[in-house]
Amino acid sequence: MDKKVILLIIVLSCPIALESATDCSKLRIGQFICPDPDSSYDYIDKNTQSIRGCTKEGTAKVRCIASEGIICEDSSNNTFYSSIPCEYTNGKHFDVALILSIFLGMFGIDRFYLGYPAIGCFKLFTLGFMFLGQLIDVILIASQIVGPADGSNYVIPYYGPKLTIVQSNNWTYRVPTWFD
Fold first, then answer.
1. What is the pLDDT of residues 153-178, one digit of tens each?
2. Measuring CA to CA, how many Å separate 83 from each of 75, 94, 144, 151?
3. What is the DSSP letter of 93?
4. What's the whole-number average pLDDT of the chain?
5. Which site in 17, 18, 95, 137 is 20 to 30 Å from 49, CA atoms measured?
6. How many Cα atoms occupy the beta-carbon half-sphere of 106 within 13 Å?
7. What share of the chain is helix, strand, coil (3-state, %, to 5)?
8. Residue pair 65/27 in contact by the 8 Å Cβ criterion
9. Contact 82/27 with Cβ under 8 angstroms?
10. Dist CA 24 CA 26 (whole Å)
11. Residue 154 host element (H or E)
12. How far apart are CA 111 and CA 75, in angstroms?
């Protein structure tokens, strides 16, 4: 036989890897789904109503799945772990803080619960700033402007009354309206 034919038979009989491994941390939006919807793992913690494993930095590692045909370097399949943003909680419940503010706010119990002992003592000795401070605290806690003293978020049900405060800065573009 001819040497070219033998070489062709050897090359065709060897399996060829058409897919190369990819660094899945550099995939673009649309090339992966986070978290993996087919996973049987429950990502929401029943106690904190946030993603399991949420750190104080506000990130959690979740299992993601890459699009069909993409093989990840670290797992040798189409799954990988990525960090997603989450809201860290320390166990202070929004509804408890609001109820304490409504019924016992004149004694500063709501501020003691949230971790503000100085303001709580001041409200206790002034009867909630003569009830005006109690009213202001009810509004501030209900609008979620005042939160726990350590900077964490309230424990609020996942589909509960969570507010997101939108802030603007020098990079925010404001669309002019017809009366501007």
1. 999 987 888 888 888 888 888 888 87
2. 16, 26, 26, 21
3. E
4. 86
5. 137
6. 5
7. 30, 15, 50
8. no
9. no
10. 5
11. strand 153-155
12. 48
Determine if residue 69 is left, alpha or beta; phi over 0 gives left, psi from -120 to 50 gives alpha, anything else beta.
left
Helices (H), the chain: 3-13, 94-104, 109-114, 117-125, 127-130, 132-142
23 Cα distance to chain centroid? 24
Total Cβ atoms within 10 A of residue 145: 10
Please give the structure tokens belonging to residue 55. 């750190």
Mean of the pLDDT values across residues 89-95? 92
Contact 32, 24 (CB under 8 A): yes
Report residue 93 CA to chain centroid gap.
Answer: 17
Q: Which amino acid is at 42?
A: D
**Residue 121 CA: distances (Å) to CA of 114, 116, 136, 150, 157:** 13, 9, 16, 18, 30
Q: What is the pTM of this model?
A: 0.72
Structure tokens, 114 = 């949230």
In the block, tokens 């993603």 appear at 51
